[in-house]
Amino acid sequence: MSPTSYALRVAEDPADREACFAVRKEVFVAEQGVPEDLEYDAYDDVAVHVLAVREDGVPLGAGRLLHGEAAAATTDGDRSVGSLGRLAVTKAARGLGVGAALVGAIEDAARSRGLTAVDLHAQTHATGFYERLGYVAYGPEFPDAGIPHRAMRRVL
Questions:
Q1: Model confidence over 59-85: pLDDT tens digits?
Q2: From its phi and psi, is residue 13 left (phi > 0), alpha (psi between -120 and 50) or beta?
Q3: More confident call, 78 vs 21
Q4: How far apart are CA 97 and CA 43, in angstroms?
């Protein structure tokens, strides 16, 4: 099996959601030192979670989409804009296109809900990745969980 052989799916059952949370814990909490109480929030209950898994079931990456009221706080109240967040790819899967595929799947979920754009808060080291996917940075740099970020948006 090729290491690039993986599938993307919306995490609808509890096992898939737990796999998303495990990826986030590995990347954000263990690797980057984000406090666990900041990583998980009430929005996890209403978000659309997307999961990338290898053919053998090993989770490779995850991300989430907030929409409607849940996204309004991060989109200046614009309910036509979704909020992409918590995008994480395991160290072993980096460079395989998993992150870009997850962003595409989250954008598809946004389109299917009638959203016209997607906002995100990118760690500054990742802004080039998002720019290659069509996102444009706006506003000043700001800290989130002690890590510098920039707001970015892509019109769908």
A1: 999 999 999 989 988 788 889 999 999
A2: beta
A3: 21
A4: 26
The H or E element that residue 101 is part of is: helix 98-112
- Say which residues have a Cβ less than 8 Å from residue 154's Cβ, sequence separation at least 6: 107, 117, 118, 130, 133, 134, 135, 136
CA angle 11, 32, 67 (to 5 degrees): 35
- Element (H or E) spanning 124, and its range? none
Whether the model pTM is above 0.85: yes
Give the C-alpha separation, 89 to 32, whole Å. Answer: 12
Pairing of strands 117-123, 81-89: parallel
Is 141:149 a contact under the CB 8 Å cutoff? Answer: yes
